[in-house]
UniProtKB/TrEMBL annotation:
<dbReference type="InterPro" id="IPR001547">
    <property type="entry name" value="Glyco_hydro_5"/>
</dbReference>
<dbReference type="InterPro" id="IPR052066">
    <property type="entry name" value="Glycosphingolipid_Hydrolases"/>
</dbReference>
<dbReference type="InterPro" id="IPR018061">
    <property type="entry name" value="Retropepsins"/>
</dbReference>
<keyword id="KW-0175">Coiled coil</keyword>
<keyword id="KW-0326">Glycosidase</keyword>
<dbReference type="InterPro" id="IPR001969">
    <property type="entry name" value="Aspartic_peptidase_AS"/>
</dbReference>
<dbReference type="GO" id="GO:0004553">
    <property type="term" value="F:hydrolase activity, hydrolyzing O-glycosyl compounds"/>
</dbReference>
<dbReference type="Pfam" id="PF00805">
    <property type="entry name" value="Pentapeptide"/>
</dbReference>
<dbReference type="InterPro" id="IPR017853">
    <property type="entry name" value="GH"/>
</dbReference>
<feature type="coiled-coil region">
    <location>
        <begin position="904"/>
        <end position="979"/>
    </location>
</feature>
<dbReference type="Pfam" id="PF00077">
    <property type="entry name" value="RVP"/>
</dbReference>
<protein>
    <recommendedName>
        <fullName>Cellulase</fullName>
    </recommendedName>
</protein>
<feature type="domain" description="Retropepsins">
    <location>
        <begin position="146"/>
        <end position="241"/>
    </location>
</feature>
<dbReference type="Pfam" id="PF00150">
    <property type="entry name" value="Cellulase"/>
</dbReference>
<dbReference type="InterPro" id="IPR001646">
    <property type="entry name" value="5peptide_repeat"/>
</dbReference>
<keyword id="KW-0378">Hydrolase</keyword>
<dbReference type="GO" id="GO:0006508">
    <property type="term" value="P:proteolysis"/>
</dbReference>
Length: 1151
């Protein structure tokens, strides 16, 4: 259906078996291109119509916004200024594949089919998209077909980022109920330069997995598929294409998971990585782990330590009573001074389990000591099982290195020595890249396979394999901190490597995330609807790892992707949920232009990655796919790159509104070049072998990192951004859920001590409650939102700067950001991944070859002796043969010499005649060359003339095209303006007619009441029947005319004496809906006395300035009402009235 008859005939002639929609699409594009080329050959002067192209090459990046799909952490911590976390909030959800998802997120998967399409040269840079020149490069992409409901009818649609508009085939409308078609005649130009005939347009409802969207679609007669959802639908509905997972995602109002406190506020965490892991060999050259050595003192900072000891010598004196200067030896007071509210504490498996199955109580006490220090300063702790290149017990193999192809490379930290199983692969790094250390890769293979280390006892580990021991180490930690609310959670493994597994997508799905799932099952007891694995095979596939009895469902689990992400700025993985446990946080690292492939391989930085924002956008979308929250647990660079690398990456964090911790806190560096080290403080000064803990703060890092940021936000966080240059801050929040205010009504923004003179302004649906000045001179802004809409917070050096921030915000909200070239980004992602795959595969092959060569050498030793014997025998036979052979060779040489002499004489005779002939040929060649030169000059002149003519003609065609495009754009703009004006006129007329009707209704009711008053001696209540009639009509009219006109009606009734209970029986208005009515003195309302409002609904009403001392509010609903500057008297006339959230700022309470 919908395919040209000529195309059908061609398919039949060629007997093509095409069954899938994407195959039809590919073939049709190729056929249309052929037909177009044929038409160009037939009509040489053929002039293309200057229409807008049907296929565009770009897809704007969706704006990343924060969300209401919450990630909570369990805790029973009481409500204090320290905002701890609580357990998962119960919310409406739907179940998919035995996993509970928030209903805001909608996912659609599609068939994982792929086709290759050639891309024409010049189509992306504004040149002629219909040029006939073919490019040698090919772009690979997969058409995305999704199942949808189109006007409640099941259909399949093609998601096309290259199509500017949504298009539906005419014949599909026979199966889809629809509104009346809107006539429209226009031709669109497709990517292959064929013409699409548009005959109508029609509004469509597109339902994707229950999420309803709308779009205006063009109706065509010659589309190669039924329905194309183009960029207009993609952009307007915040659709993101997860590539290469091959599925689409509609972000409902930008929702995704985030960490919330017990008041359901969005929490932003900013912190630093603090190192306690062990790196040095031997172990006694690393920092001590005995907590007694840190009790009120700090161990000496010895020159062999890579990082200074972490200390808090004044612990126990209280949060703000501890010295926080740079030379105080109080790390956590210093961390609080910087404005950080979380640390990532890097731990070592080798310190936790120094011998197999024996977990170190001393190291656990040291970790507990550090957690207590952090708790006193109200700083959260992420316990990070840290490893770098698997283990410090992987030693570079200098004996076999072949620089620069293979260089000796050490591991750094992580696994204990007994857990290092390299299978004799050498510790050589392929081209010096640490991620391609052959021994490290093989060690990870054994870890993922849960290999059993030789000569290692199981001890207290839950199983004999490497993973079993590792899970036991985490369980050892979790048992200690299961009820500790200062611990935010556990990071299962730092920068896991893929080992020798080539396909990264398969590796993550089959090895990495199943390992994470086992850890979570062991610690939380979550079973994921699977039976327990048997004890003899705890790491089985279709079963749950044994529950180790901790049952910790309070804490977060931080999961990292493979370290390949550090090279690519995206993770080659299938980002889908892997556990039914809800408190999971995706924890990638971002090192754009620091460790990305352009830096490692010394490539041009402009080639890849495309931007600093790109790393956070991909990380955010990976976390959405995993149904998790997100916190970047590492970023950083040397101080010489603060302006070029650090500021841009932190700006990108703010744009994405992602929490993060910077690497590292402090480090030792006593040699030349330490001025560019990564730490936040200068290195200590060395005196012999001892140095002070650290030097002063680095001022530029204070300027960049000690910044204004939100701590807890009520509502949906739309944006926040801190400008490092101007020290200004802006935050936009949307809050429309007033139930949030029942838990807590305070949004908190932190201002560091260095900005304590900043000006603060709050606009929109919120008020500035107070500013708390902490003893360390930092400030907390306390904001009370009303949850009636959007509110903003501005922090700047002066009010003029705040005005500029506000204006800039208005401009940004009304402008469209420049779109990125989506196809080019996908192509560069693929090329970067393929480059990594090439290096990784070569490294694996090198390791395999090395091991194979080593084993062959052992087998060859046994053959060497036999070979030597055979060689000696062969040499003896050859000596016997050499004597006779030598004689025969001499005879041959004599005969050969005679023949050569005869041949030489004959050759000289022939050369004499050849030289004569060559001279004649040279003269002939010179004559021919002159003729060719003359002919070439003639051709060159003719060609230049033709090129000039062609250039002039091309310029004329380009001018014509631009004029037509501008005219079309102007016509479209004028038409849009006319439609807007017509719409505004209709809306104005409707509003005028509505106001006129309401005024007429009010006047009619007043006349009716006046008639009744005249007929019944000025009283509406003297006759019960008349009272009932007057009450009914009045309540009906009040319900219809709204608060403003109701005020005028009440004034009339009061003036007529029908509301005052001191003169006669007042009119009964109980049950009347007078919400938001303004009876304040500022509203031209005369002072009313003895008014009867018993049983009336007056929520959010305003009585400002009135004397209410004799008003009757018995049983009235006055929630959120404003009693500012009123005189009130508490009496029985106020009995049973409701005043929830009312503003009772009373001017005078009368006795």
């Amino acid at each position: 259906n919908g395919v040209k008859n000529s195309l059908k005939e061609h398919l039949i002639r060629n007997e093509k078996e095409i069954k899938k929609p994407e195959e039809w699409l590919q073939f049709a594009r190729e056929e249309e291109y052929i037909q177009k080329r044929i038409q160009q050959k037939i009509n040489v002067p053929h002039h293309e119509p200057k229409n807008l192209p049907f296929f565009e090459r770009t897809l704007p990046t969706a704006t990343i916004q924060l969300t209401s799909t919450n990630m909570y952490l369990s805790s029973q911590q009481p409500s204090t200024s320290r905002h701890y976390y609580k357990k998962q909030h119960q919310q409406q959800s739907t179940s998919i594949n035995n996993r509970t998802y928030p209903t805001q997120n909608n996912y659609t998967t599609f068939k994982p089919t792929q086709k290759n399409h050639s891309k024409k040269e010049g189509s992306d840079d504004g040149d002629d998209p219909c040029g006939a020149t073919k490019s040698s490069t090919k772009t690979t992409f997969a058409p995305i077909f999704v199942k949808i409901l189109c006007n409640n009818t099941p259909q399949e649609a093609l998601i096309d980022t290259g199509s500017a508009i949504t298009i539906i085939h005419q014949h599909l409308l026979n199966d889809v109920p629809h509104e009346k078609l809107i006539p429209k005649t226009i031709n669109h130009l497709s990517a292959n330069c064929s013409t699409l005939n548009i005959i109508d347009e029609i509004p469509l409802e597109i339902n994707v997995n229950g999420m309803k969207t709308t779009v205006i679609a063009d109706v065509t007669t010659n589309l190669v598929t039924n329905l194309i959802l183009g960029s207009d639908w993609i952009q307007s509905n915040n659709v993101y294409i997860l590539t290469p997972e091959q599925r689409i995602m509609i972000r409902s109002q930008g929702h995704y998971g985030y960490i919330a406190d017990e008041y359901e506020r969005h929490v932003i965490l900013r912190g630093v990585d603090v190192e306690t892991e062990q790196r040095n060999i031997p172990a006694d050259q690393d920092r001590p782990i005995d907590p007694l050595l840190y009790d009120g003192q700090c161990p000496s900072n010895i020159n062999v330590y890579q990082e200074p000891p972490v200390c808090e010598i004044d612990y126990g004196k209280g949060m703000y009573n501890i010295n926080d200067e740079w030379n105080s030896h109080n790390d956590f007071a210093q961390i609080r001074r910087w404005g950080f509210n979380v640390i990532r504490l890097c731990l070592s498996w080798s310190a936790l389990e120094p011998t197999p199955g024996n977990y170190s109580e001393m190291y656990l006490q040291r970790v507990e000591q550090i957690v207590e220090w952090a708790s006193e300063q109200q700083i959260y702790v992420i316990l990070d099982m840290h490893e770098d290149l698997y283990s410090r017990y992987i030693f570079g193999d200098k004996e076999h290195e072949i620089p620069p192809y293979l260089t000796a490379s050490d591991g750094q930290d992580g696994a204990p020595q007994w857990a290092v199983m390299t299978d004799d692969w050498p510790a050589l790094a392929f081209f010096g890249i640490g991620n391609l250390n052959l021994a490290m890769m093989k060690a990870f293979d054994n870890f993922y396979n849960n290999s059993i280390p030789p000569n290692a006892t199981q001890g207290n580990a839950p199983g004999p394999g490497l993973q079993d021991h590792y899970i036991g180490a985490i369980a050892f930690l979790a048992k200690k901190f299961v009820n500790n609310s200062a611990v935010l959670g556990y990071e299962i493994m730092n920068e896991p490597q893929p080992g020798t597994y080539i396909d990264q997508y398969t590796f993550s799905s089959n090895y990495l995330y199943p390992f994470y799932k086992r850890v979570i099952q062991a610690i939380t007891g979550v079973r994921d609807n699977l039976p327990d694995c048997p004890k003899y095979a705890p790491t089985g596939i279709n079963c749950s790892y044994p529950n180790l009895g901790i049952n910790d469902k309070r804490h977060l689990f931080f999961v990292e992707p493979t370290s390949v992400r550090n090279l690519l700025d995206f993770t080659p993985q299938h980002s889908i949920p892997f556990s039914s446990y809800t408190n999971i946080v995706y924890a990638p690292h971002v090192y754009t232009h620091v460790f990305t492939i352009d830096s490692i391989l010394h490539l041009n930085r402009s080639i890849y990655p495309p931007s600093f924002d790109y790393a956070y956008e991909t990380a955010l979308n990976e976390s959405i796919g995993l149904q998790s929250a997100i916190l970047v647990t590492e970023f950083g660079c040397g101080t010489d790159a603060d302006e070029t690398l650090l500021i841009p990456t932190i700006d990108s964090q703010d744009k994405a509104m992602i929490s993060a911790t910077i690497w590292p806190w402090k480090n030792n560096c006593f040699q030349k070049g330490c001025e560019t080290s990564w730490s936040l403080y200068d290195s200590g000064t060395l005196n012999g072998t001892i140095a002070n803990q650290n030097g002063p703060e680095r001022p530029n890092r204070v300027r960049i990192l000690s910044r204004v940021h939100p701590r807890g936000v009520i509502g949906q966080l739309k944006q926040y951004f801190y400008n490092t240059t101007t020290s200004s801050f802006i935050m936009t929040v949307n809050c429309i859920n007033k139930t949030l205010l029942l838990l807590n009504n305070e949004t908190i923004v932190y201002i560091p001590r260095r900005l304590n003179n900043s000006v603060i302004n709050v606009t929109g649906e919120a008020t500035l409650n107070k500013i708390i000045k902490n003893p360390d001179q930092s400030r907390l802004i306390i904001i009370n939102p009303t949850c009636n809409g959007q509110y903003r917070v501005f922090v700047a050096n002066n009010t003029n700067q705040i005005d500029k921030l506000y204006q800039q915000t208005v401009i940004n909200n009304n402008s469209n950001s420049k779109s990125n070239n989506h196809h080019e980004t996908i192509q560069s992602m693929q090329e970067a991944y393929e480059l990594y795959q090439l290096l990784h595969t070569a490294a694996v092959k090198t390791g395999e070859t090395f091991v194979a060569t080593s084993s062959n050498f052992v087998n060859k030793e046994s053959k060497i002796q036999r070979l030597e014997d055979r060689i000696l025998a062969r040499e003896q036979r050859e000596q016997d043969l050499n004597v006779s052979t030598l004689q025969r060779e001499n005879d041959k040489e004599i005969a050969e010499g005679r023949r050569m002499t005869d041949n030489l004489n004959a050759e000289q005779q022939r050369n004499m005649s050849l030289e004569q002939r060559q001279h004649e040929l040279a003269i002939e060649q010179q004559r021919y060359d002159k003729q060719q030169e003359q002919r070439s000059e003639d051709i060159k002149l003719t060609t230049e003339q033709r090129m000039q003519d062609l250039k002039l003609a091309e310029q004329q065609r380009e001018n014509d095209r631009m004029i037509a495009e501008r005219k079309q754009a102007a016509d479209d703009l004028n038409a849009e303006k006319e439609r807007n004006v017509s719409r505004e006129i209709e809306e104005y007329r409707y509003e005028q007619a509505k106001n006129k009707d309401l005024d007429a209704l009010l006047l009619s009711h007043i006349n009716d009441m006046g008639t009744l008053l005249e007929n019944y001696n000025g009283s509406l209540t003297a006759n019960p029947t008349i009272a009932a009639l007057a009450r009914a009509k009045t309540l009906h009219v009040i319900r219809s005319i709204g608060p403003e006109r109701s005020t005028r009606l009440l004034q009339f009734l009061f003036d007529a004496g029908q509301l005052s209970y001191d003169q006669q029986t007042p009119l009964d208005l109980s049950g009347a809906i007078l919400n938001r009515i303004d009876l304040s003195m500022n509203n031209d309302i005369i002072s009313m006395r003895h008014v009867n409002f018993a049983g009336v609904h007056m929520n959010e009403a305003t009585f400002a300035g009135q004397d209410l001392s004799n008003w009757n509010f018995t049983g009235a609903s006055l929630n959120y009402a404003n009693f500012t500057r009123t005189n009130c008297k508490v009496s029985r006339t106020w009995a049973y009235a409701w005043f929830q959230y009312a503003d009772l700022t009373i001017h005078l309470w009368l006795p």
